[in-house]
Design a protein that fits this description.
about 425 residues, mainly beta, 3 domains, 23-stranded mixed sheet, elongated
């Protein structure tokens, strides 16, 4: 056994680097050749500091003694305290172990390892891991599983080779309540809004590195689904209850331009927006669109909205993001609007206390609708075979056909 202690008071940076180089040389020699004279090397580092990392009380142990189950050497790194300066994150009781170490030119690998620590955004890290480097092709690969993030058990893998990279992450059971806390530095809901549910998700990403080793063109594919999504804004005017939702999407970032394509499908639960009530079990929803950020707004093109037995429409829209989220401008071509389902979804709550609160409605419509500044600005519609009647027969309309053209009054100029 060889023990190489390093005390923190004298020049920790230089001494730590020297000790690590000695350990690296020992790993290479004892892994590449028979090493009968040494069975274990222990490096103790009181303090290690770089511009981005600070470590205290680290012990690195290389064990090359033969084991009954394997002839591979093992490597274990234990750090009492590890700080990532730029991220402002601190971990304690860090334990990084490799129980199957391979060093055979051109292959360098940890085939079976584990990482454990306390602290950080998730509170605790515990995952199995593996990593490899193939010097002949300049390829680095890694994988891991068992890492818990906001209640989800995740697994991941990635690769870096000759200016290209890939990273895949998947998980099941992601709890949106703690996930919302983790996402706060980047995404925040308005104060008073609530969001809950559990997600199963998969993210596949690929990209390129520039000559300066910066992120170049990147493409991300996402799939996610849930069967218990709940949401409410603070006033309670927008509510979603037990939604069954699946989302697939892709996004591409290239030279500062971001584009994405999304497809959402919902087949269960209900959503309330003001007086509009949508029942996705009765009228399943499919929504597709192409999205591009444009300054302080989002441009939505190739929109296709379909709800079974309710509506089939396509169009474009521009959403303002600076301040309250509003529809700056939108245009939709409505191929089909079924009045029976439209009455239940769009009108029945508004008319509930009137004589028109329980009508039997039939017929359909098609046409165009324009919106501006979050309000309807123009409607052109053609109605076919419209009928309505109440239970008392005081109101009755049958087989009505015609056209409707309406435009909002222009806003007075000052």
């Amino acid at each position: 056994m060889v023990r190489h202690p390093i005390n923190p008071p004298q020049r920790p940076k230089r001494e730590s680097g020297r000790g690590l180089r000695l350990l690296a040389a020992g790993i290479f020699c004892c892994s590449a050749y028979d090493c009968d004279a040494i069975d274990r090397v222990i490096l103790e580092v009181g303090q290690l500091s770089t511009a981005g990392v600070q470590a205290q009380n680290a012990i690195i142990t290389l064990d090359v003694a033969p084991r009954p189950d394997s002839g591979s050497p093992t490597l274990q790194t234990q750090v009492a305290k590890l700080s990532l300066v730029q991220q402002g994150t601190t971990y304690s009781d860090v334990d990084i172990s490799c129980s199957d170490l391979l060093i055979r030119q051109p292959q360098f690998a940890c085939k079976q390892g584990s990482i454990a620590a306390h602290g950080g955004p998730t509170g605790q890290i515990a995952t199995t891991a593996a990593a490899a480097y193939d010097a002949s092709i300049g390829a680095v690969s890694f994988s891991g599983s068992g890492l818990k993030v906001a209640g989800a058990v995740t697994h991941f893998d990635g690769k870096l080779q000759w200016g290209t990279w890939s990273l895949n992450v998947a998980g099941d059971g992601l709890d949106l309540v703690p996930a919302r806390q983790l996402a706060q530095p980047w995404v925040q809901l308005p104060a008073g809004d609530t969001l809950s549910g559990h997600l199963k998700f998969q993210v596949e990403s690929t990209g390129q590195l520039t000559a300066a080793n910066r992120i170049g063109k990147t493409r991300v594919l996402l799939t996610a689904n849930t069967s218990d999504l709940n949401f409410s804004n603070q006033p309670g005017t927008t509510v979603a209850q037990n939604l069954t939702v699946s989302l697939t999407g892709s996004a591409t970032s290239d030279r500062g331009r971001l584009t994405s394509d999304l497809k959402l499908h919902s087949s269960g639960g209900q959503a309330l927006a003001g007086t509009v009530l949508l029942d996705f079990a009765k009228n399943p929803l499919t929504l597709e669109t192409h999205v591009e950020p444009d300054g302080h707004s989002l441009s939505l093109t190739q929109i296709h909205l379909e709800q079974s037995d309710l509506i089939d429409a396509q169009g474009t829209a521009r959403i303002a993001l600076a301040g309250p989220v509003t529809i700056e401008q939108a245009h939709f071509d409505v191929r089909r609007l079924e009045f029976a389902a439209a009455y239940r979804s769009f009108l029945q709550l508004t008319l509930a206390t009137t004589d028109f609160g329980a009508l039997n409605v039939g017929g359909r419509a098609s046409g165009e609708i324009d919106l501006a500044d979050d309000a309807v600005s123009q409607v052109s519609a053609r109605i076919q075979n419209v009928s309505m009647a109440d239970s008392t027969t005081r109101l009755s309309l049958a087989n009505a056909n015609g056209e409707l053209h309406w435009a909002a009054a222009p806003t007075p100029t000052v």
